Prior knowledge:
Blueprint: H1 10-24, H2 26-33, H3 39-65
Amino acid sequence: MQIIVRENNVDQALRALKKKLQREGVYREMRLRQHYEKPSEKRARECAAAISRARKADRKRADRDR
């Protein structure tokens, strides 16, 4: 990953780096890897995320149909 610093503007470069890291999912990955997660906990978390994604898709579909 490469960030170009233009006109010695380090703050802008840092903002761009953070945005790239967030888009790549690095922060989420770090948070998940901080502590060991049991396989059953991982399955439950992934299942809950799938349910929430499905509910969100249903809400969007319902809004579109109105």
